[in-house]
Amino acid sequence: MRASSAWKASEERCRSTKPEGARVVREVAIAGIGQTKYSGLTDQSYPELVRAATKTVLEDAETTIDSVDAVVVSMAPDAIIGVSHGERWIVDACGAAGKPMMRVHTGGATGISAVQVAAYHVASGMYDTVMVVGADRVGESGDAQTILNRIWDPFYERAMPLNTITMLAFQAVRFMEKYGMTEEHMAAVSVKDHKNGCKNPYAHVQKEFTVEDVLGSRMISWPIKLYDSCPSSSGGAAMILTAGENVGRFPHKPAYIRGLGHASETYWMGDRMGPKKEVDHADSPALTQAAYAAYKMAGIQDHRREIQAWELYAPFSNIELHAIQDVGLCEPDETLKLLEDGAFDIDGDRPVNPSGGVLCANPISVTAMVRVAEAALQVQGRAGEHQIDGVKTALATGIGGDHQHFGAVVVGDGR
pTM for this structure? Predict the structure, then answer.
């Protein structure tokens, strides 16, 4: 059944720039951040990766698992790790025995959804301190696409063949047609992000490329090439969220979760393409809706001026450009010129993905959580070599499924 009326209402709401926003009952602070080094292969099992992330975040927060009231597990398709219902496997590894624990799964957006669930727990007053933790072993799954491609309708879409890469190649072609993007623009995004990734000690890919390197890399699905694409990464990440009144118990300058937004897209790809499409596949109105809901909740009036760092979920270089537009970082007719002028560089006036982003590490279950973690590190002034001066507020986003689930989190300082 087509979701025409519901979608039109949703689209109208996000385009009005006045989407519905939530109300926070009490402040939620990020008290600890932990990441492992991301890589292609690992000699650690899934529970060992979760254990490593848990240990790292507890050390960062200078606390123990006893101070954690509940655990939210960030876990995308468990077929990648080869064990069904993998959350059962890690109860002991993350110290959740005897505590409330739940798993969250929204595809690539899983990490940001898990952070939002934890934030809701704390904001509501149900729990004071919640740990979000997850890991993935994409680098050891053999062929992750075989698993990911099972999201498609088996009677029509899967037989096309439609998969997670060709879907986004369609998006790239439509974006080219509508906005004038070229393969060189895509390559420029890749060059920028990989240069940033060399400054990030956790990044899987730590190698600089030239535009010529990217254009000359193996074609995956035109116009997407190998160096336009994210790696298959293994690794773990964790965060500790606590009530604002507890920040004095933890060692670091707190980063507060100021705004949350989430919206979903229609399932059928055919509803996004062709003469009878309900939305344009070049854009993602649901991402716009999620971002503007987060802005409203955070009390942001002018996001281009009030936000100093942007961690946008973009597993392919073309996705970064449409995400830039969809979160309102610039007007659609400005995007390519701003890219050419270096506005989105780490030293530009609108820095995007200073960590290297998803192009430099993609452990699917926690990739979107890492966007929030990196945004928080920028606000705390703890991002190391890829730190941007004067960050008071940052935005993180996540995208999951067949470009279907979108999340946004605004992270800010104590003001």
Answer: 0.93
